[in-house]
Amino acid sequence: MSTMQDVPLTVTRILMHGMTIHGTSLVTTWTGEAEPQRRSYREIGERSAQLAHALKDELGVRPDDRVATLMWNNAEHVEAYFAIPCMGSILHTLNLRLPAEQLAWIVGHAADKVVIVNGSLLPLLAPLLPHLSSVEHVVVSGPGD
C-alpha cells in the first residue's frame, strides 16, 4: 500500500486541515507595531472565508481574477493568502520595498483587479492609483493615515 495521499494537496485542503486538526492552536503575527496578534486556525479560516465572500459578492472578483496584496506579514495577510486562492483567484503579492514606478509597472502588467493594502502602506499606493487602469477596487486593511 502506498503512503501517497489520495487527495489533491490544495490550499483549500490545507486550510480545512488546519481548521479541523489544529483549530484551537494559535497563529501569532507581529509587525513591530502595537502588540502581537493571536488568532486560532479556526478564526483564520473563518476570516478568510469572510474575505473571500466579500471579494466575490461585493467587488465581483471571479476565478482567475488577480488580487494584489501590498501588506506587512501580519494576520490579515495570512487571511488573504488563504482567501484568494481558495476562491480560485490569483494571489499577487507585491514587494513593498520596490520603487513606486516598478510597483506601478508590475500591477499594470499583471492586470490586477483589486489591491488589498495595509493602511500604513496606503501612502505608497495612493500616488500610483491614477496610473493603474486595471485596478477597480482598493481594500484598506486596518487604520490608514
UniProtKB/TrEMBL annotation:
Q: Which InterPro entries match?
A: AMP-dep_synth/lig_dom, ANL_N_sf, ATP-dep_AMP-bd_enzyme
State a single Pfam family of this protein.
AMP-binding
Domain (AMP-dependent synthetase/ligase) ranges: 34-139
> Origin, by domain of life?
Bacteria
For this entry, the protein name equals: AMP-binding protein
